[in-house]
Amino acid sequence: MSxxxxxxxxxxxxxxxxxxxxxxxxxxxxxxxxxxxxxHLFQPLLYQVATGILSEGEIAPxxxxxxxxxxxxxxxLAEVSGFDLDRRTVTAVRPDGGGFELPYxxxxxxxxxxxxxxxxxxxxxxxxxxxxxxDALELRGRxxxxxxxxxxxQDPEKRRAWLTFAVVGGGPTGVEIAGQIAELSRRVLSDDFxxxxxxxxxxxxxxxxxxxxxxxxxxxxxxxxxxxxxxGIEVHTSSTVVDxxxxxxxxxxxxxxxxxxxxxxxxxxxxxxxxxxxxLADASGAECxxxxxxSVLPDCSLPGHPEVFAxxxxxxxxxxxxxxxVAMQQGIHAATTIKRRLRAEETxxxxxxxxxxMATISRFRAIVSFRGIRLSGFLGWLAWLFVHLAxxxxxxxxxxxxxxxxxxxxxxGRPERTITMQQIIGRVAIGxxxxxxxxxxxxxxxxxxxxxxxxxxx
Amino acid sequence: MSxxxxxxxxxxxxxxxxxxxxxxxxxxxxxxxxxxxxxHLFQPLLYQVATGILSEGEIAPxxxxxxxxxxxxxxxLAEVSGFDLDRRTVTAVRPDGGGFELPYxxxxxxxxxxxxxxxxxxxxxxxxxxxxxxDALELRGRxxxxxxxxxxxQDPEKRRAWLTFAVVGGGPTGVEIAGQIAELSRRVLSDDFxxxxxxxxxxxxxxxxxxxxxxxxxxxxxxxxxxxxxxGIEVHTSSTVVDxxxxxxxxxxxxxxxxxxxxxxxxxxxxxxxxxxxxLADASGAECxxxxxxSVLPDCSLPGHPEVFAxxxxxxxxxxxxxxxVAMQQGIHAATTIKRRLRAEETxxxxxxxxxxMATISRFRAIVSFRGIRLSGFLGWLAWLFVHLAxxxxxxxxxxxxxxxxxxxxxxGRPERTITMQQIIGRVAIGxxxxxxxxxxxxxxxxxxxxxxxxxxx
Lengths: 458, 458
Description:
The structure is a homodimer. Chain A is an alpha/beta fold.
């Protein structure tokens, strides 16, 4: 820890917090990075953990290990519970339950966003989202478990439901997970079963809007849809999922509702800012928008508190998109602003440099949009591969991991197919039998709200 | 599936069941392999998953994928609940709760063994064993979490307890996990913390017997002990652990009891055969020994039922050790016996060929005992590496995994340090906060039996 007297507290070790911390590495400050989990998460590849391509360690390096050489930072595993902006302290809870207060001179809050079910939290049991490592392991167990159960099921209708996968939400996350489930069933698992043909699995993608991947613009969006359909994925646009239960989903399209039996449901439809955004808003008098994000000033600070920054998915500014790039650049911006102030230099407002968007459709197909350049197909995929490899090497600097991943992904194997004990909240749960875990089904004993309203969801 | 009419049911996809199945690949039979989990487990490397070297997928390939090319076998994910040896059927439960009956002409049961706490099942909450992938992930979370909590703990005595690791049992499993915890603390984590020095972690190994690794004989056992002590591990022989609770262990040695504060406890002291051994004994009139293993005839079959074989850790024969080698050779033997019968040839009793024992002490040290040849130190480690690599390649045939593993293990990194949501039964549990998981400590609210008796444990 350095002897510098300016104390910076960074909340959250995601893209925003990590880049802010790194950008302070040569500054005369002492940094404390607080996170609830021990790892940074390379969220854009989470869907690959959910489909058995990568292990969790490969996209979630420990924060300590990433920051090992940066001597002016301490990492603490703790959950932030509140802020006192006047006294300039953060209150937090340690893993063993003890609370503590941490004083700061500058504060950077980058707590991100969680899944939002738009008021239908009961859906979460049946349709997990994909925001954390545990989400991904839960989904991995459900997806692979569905094929296992289908293999044993004798009733053709029920078997069909176990082989039906409903993905809600047609943004990059929904598209990528749908694409990988299709690849799993068409290619990876195609020879593994005796009673079922995994290639017959039905992968359905629902979106309430008129197109999938809308943010890429009409042309790329259409190419993305074509790519998905070539993989045999049923793409249902203008189709709103209005209910989800253990056995399937209810979809509303053109005023009509129909029920689809699907044992595996995945939620990729919406996000909600961390509750810490609301705390910051209440403490500073700033506004929160519908997605729970706190409005910040043009330099990402809070009104009346130039020493407090809110960055990334939890803040609202200039209709910036909720992508990793924004969080990274804002992290660097907040760090720069702190450094300039320490040198009594003028500070600047945040300016986002759009480095483009990407979504991968299948193994060798992706779409990329970058400053008027639009790539699709294999060329898009090469660009996607390059950027992901560059990032992974950039922050992990571990040649072996990248090598391993590149071999696995291009080779098409799925090394990570272990069903672990994550499935505790779903339909498929783990029991103990003789000391060894065993997959067991949960009875549908919990109350479940039926189709209630017509609020748009998908 | 082949058209052959002879039906073989194999229960358990461990070393015994997998080798039996593979040995039947060209036989005119139809094989059904039943297991509760979807993967084979390379148990000898489980301790590497627990200490972050390997991911679970690297030692637990899906059974389906291992057996993909063997067309005469079907894999079913189901838990066997009983046997009717007269009607020649197995009853089992599918993951979704449905029961079914499976008829056989030959039956091979290889259900293995679970952890035994010698009647002190309350210890399991505080000192997980290491028999399954979930055990290993649970331990990984506890071991890495202990360093995290120590970093935040202000009270020096409590911090000491979080940095104390008690391993109960001085067989290969206990020795290997103790060695890897020491390497983690001495080497891997040494630079990652600011408040604590992980190198000060105390790793204690307890065994009730007079020496660790007793099965290797005096000379190697002494070398093993020396290797452990060189890593800074405190080896306590003739020391019986008589109680375990949340805060530590009570050890009895030379008639005296003392309490040691240790937040992390690992149980590697004993095994108990699968309850299916008792079911087979009851159904056939065979005996069960104290460890719950069913006594088999010299050809591994049950008395009065030459078509039923019990193999591996769940059977008792000629004081054979409970090692993977025995299970593999018995699996092949049972398969050979079935094939010989189908060809009306004479069958033979099982003969164990001792291929030696191995235990690795640290990164470059292992001890190996093989037909009078005794290796230790670096030479032992090379032999150990060779055999493990040969096995991994043998059954997985995946160059990239082996390469990845070899790089990681010799390079000394720990790619898998994610704390996942396995810690549901321990002191450190996961809560949900805003949709993201968070480490929380469990209150000591469950009843716990105090030190009650003096039964030997360690």
